[in-house]
Each structure stands twice: as C-alpha cells, then as structure tokens.
Design a protein that fits this description.
Radius of gyration: 21 Å
Mean pLDDT: 94
Strand order of the largest sheet: 16-13-15-14-18-19-17-20
Largest sheet: 8 strands, antiparallel
Structural class: alpha+beta
Shape: globular
Distance between the termini: 36 Å
Length: 439
C-alpha cells in the first residue's frame, strides 16, 4: 500500500470527499503520539484515513489526516496461544498473506480484503456464519493512542470498558496502534455455489444456517432466484482443489467483473433496460464447487463500483423484511441494477456492534455508481426501521445519535467512555458528530 500525503481525499465509491489541513505518515506509536499532540497544539482534529473503502464519511479528515501505510505488518505471533499482533495500517489482504506464512488463519472474514485491520474492526466489518461473529469478535487486545498522546492497552481484563467500546470504536476514541487477534491453524474451505428459488431458500433458512459453517445468498430484485453460497471446513490435512485458472478467470474476472460491469453501464445509460438485464444476470448464474485455503474462498474480487447500504436486523425478521422489499422495490421509479446480499451472524457483546445482544441477519443493498439510489435507500431504511435495524457504520445511512440511542442498549456507555478518553473531541469529525452527538 502506497504512502499518501495528499490533502484532498475521496472514498472508493466517490461518494465522500474531504480536504485535510495536514497529513502525517507515522512509522511507529511514538510518531502517532507526536502527531496527536501536534494536533492538540494546533487546535485541530485527528482522523485516520484507512483504505477509504467505507461508503460513509467515517474516514473523512478535515483536520490532521493520519496515513498509517508506513505502520504495517505482523509484529508478534504466539503460535502456542494463536494470538497474533498486527500493526493497524496493515490491510486484510496483507494480513492474510502473513498468516499463511505462519500456518494460521482468521475464523471468519468478509468478502473484501482492501480495508486496513483497524478500519475493518472500527466499522464492524463482518462475514457470515450463524455461530460466528464479525472481525471485532476475534480481537483479544488493542493498543491505542489517546487524545493526550498517551499509549494504552485494553482487553477483557485491562480497561475492559474501553475494550468493549474500542473494538467497534468508529475512530472516535483514539488512534488504534496495534490489534491482537485470535487466530486458528490454517484450514481449507469447501465452497458450493448454486442458484435456487428464493422462496425455498427463505423457507429453509434456519436449516441452511445450522448445517453450514458459512451461508449467504444474493437476490436480484427483479428475479425469482437466489445465488446461494455454502462454505464449510474440511478436515485437517485436506488438500485444496481450487477452480482451474481458466475457469476462475472466466467466471470471476470476465463474468462477475468485466461482463457485469458492461451490463451496469448499459443499464445506467438506458434505465428501461435494467429490469431485463437484471433478469439476464440472474438467469446466467451457474453452479460451481471447489475448495481452497480459507481466505481465498472468503474473499472475492470486486472491481465494479457501487454505493452500498447495509442494516443488521433480528434474524427472525428476515423473511418479512425481504417480503416487503420484494413487493415494493419493483415499484420504484428508478430501477435497481445490483443484487441484495444476505448474511447472518451470532450475537456478541461489543457495545456498538450491529449484532450486540441478538442473532442477526444482514441485508446489504447496492446500486451501480452513477445511478440514482436515494429513493431506494430511503425505502430500505424505512422497512428495516420497523424491526429495529442497525446500520453498518461504514455504509450509507441517515441515522443520527437520537435515533441510534434507541437501537443500541450500551450507546450511552460508549459516549461516557468517549468523554473520558477524548474530552475535547480531538477525534471528532462530522460523521462521528452526527452518529454519536457533538457534546
């Protein structure tokens, strides 16, 4: 990952921009602390930019921007306990590669690996699995630089309130310096992907989730089929049997990126073609089965750009919510090009985790970049609000602190910790002021 010193910034989707007053690229915790103290001396705020893969302005720096691309890599590994400590600017992709070399792996991952480790946990990034939590649930300790320039550690036993808040901390508590993760011996996943009628998928959802380590599906809004994905661990010592390079290139690069991107551009230029193109995409889905090292199965190449909103809802509400979306989305004036993604996760105890205290289903909706999406996203928010939906912190939503307080039982506890460690709002930006309140 290259070093960026540009004051101007934009996120991956091009939906958010900001101009910093200064940029620092620290190489160690001492330089991170020095940068935070510099900001205090100059009366400005501090924001860590990360990789820019969030669709919200959570990483937008209007004061001092920290670029941690010079602070990367695994710095400690205990192969006895499986705990691995990694520097905060490391991308998920780079971490996976280093874990490979150690014979280790993370238990669960999302399908994008461009994010930094600190950004991914701070926004609540997750994969899928009814018995598994998001990336932050795999964190056993954190080191942070606080607003006064001090460096502190936290875990379940050391400053536990700070730990409960900082695992999904929105960048509002301090600068994460290192993350200690619980890892497992490297394992191979068997992947089975196939189209199935959506009603059958929903009728047997609990069964699918219980019988598979990782289950998810995609549904094209104008089609009647879902693409289901089942990923399951193979016994220790199993040999990977990945797709051949030609088929992998044809299906993932040509079909899912080049061809789908071309269809999206046609749909953006001629909106009346979106519905038939959407149905064509759904009908082109084909079965495939393979196995590979875990992170190569979890992660998928995504080069077609889009805008995304995602909410976590109680798992038992999924069928009703999808039913309402199936009925109402086709009536929108502007058609929808991208599929809806559905995943699941176990309840956890992290204060601002979207799965706090409840087994959850995640619905992620997308629209091709440059196509109208506001009415679609507003409809989505209205539907999930009826069941207490909680927005992914890194994806488009309109909620503010008043609305969010009612959806997170430990919301005020988080604000209390924030006021203790950052009384002057050193790590505040407009996004955190909206979702957490400005006092």
């Amino acid at each position: 990952m290259g070093r960026s010193t540009a004051l101007a910034w934009r996120n991956w989707a091009g939906t958010e921009t900001a101009t910093a007053t200064a940029v620092r690229s620290p190489r160690d915790p001492g330089e991170i602390a020095e940068a935070v103290r510099w900001a205090a001396d100059h009366g400005t705020t501090v924001t860590t930019r990360g990789s820019g893969h969030s669709f919200t302005a959570i990483g937008a720096a209007h004061g001092l921007a920290l670029d941690l691309s010079r602070w990367t890599g695994v710095c400690a590994a205990d192969l006895g306990t499986g705990e691995v400590t990694v520097r905060a600017g490391t991308t998920i992709a780079a971490l996976n590669a280093e874990l490979d070399g150690l014979g280790r792996a993370l238990a669960n991952l999302g399908d994008i690996d461009a994010q930094t480790v600190s950004g991914a946990i701070s926004t609540g990034t997750h994969g899928t699995g009814a018995a598994l939590g998001g990336l932050a649930t795999q964190v056993s300790a954190l080191e942070l630089v606080l607003a006064d320039g001090s460096t502190v550690s936290c875990s379940d036993t050391e400053r536990p309130d700070l730990f409960a808040a900082a695992r999904v901390g929105l960048g509002a508590l301090g600068v994460i310096s290192t993350v200690t993760l619980r890892t497992e011996p490297a394992f191979v996943l068997s992947a089975q992907e196939r189209p199935e009628p959506l009603p059958e998928v929903l009728d047997r959802l609990d069964e699918h989730c219980a019988e598979n380590d990782h289950f998810e599906f995609y549904w094209f809004p104008y089609g009647h089929k879902a693409l289901t994905k089942r990923n399951n661990r193979l016994p220790e010592g199993a040999r990977p049997r990945p797709l051949g390079p030609v088929r992998r290139f044809a299906e993932y690069e040509v079909m899912e990126n080049v061809a789908f991107g071309a269809l999206c551009r046609v749909g953006r230029a001629v909106p009346r073609l979106v519905r038939p193109l959407n149905r064509l995409s759904a009908s082109a889905l084909s079965p495939r089965a393979y196995s590979d090292v875990s992170h190569r199965v979890f992660v998928t190449s995504r080069r077609v750009r889009f805008v995304e909103s995602e909410y976590a809802i109680p798992r038992e509400a999924l069928a009703d919510v999808l039913g309402e979306l199936r009925a109402r989305v086709p009536r929108l004036a502007d058609p929808v090009m991208f599929p809806v993604e559905v995943r699941v996760a176990a309840a956890d105890d992290i204060w601002l985790s979207t799965a706090y205290g409840r087994d959850s289903a995640y619905l992620a909706i997308h629209q091709y970049v440059g196509m109208p999406y506001r009415a679609y996203f507003d409809l989505f928010e209205a539907v999930v609000a009826q069941v207490g939906g909680r927005p992914h912190w890194g994806k488009v939503h309109t909620l503010d602190a008043e609305a969010l307080r009612g959806r997170y039982p430990r919301f005020d506890d988080f604000r209390r910790v924030r006021s203790e460690v950052d009384p002057e709002g050193r790590f505040r930006n407009p996004y955190s002021a909206r979702v957490l309140g400005s006092d």
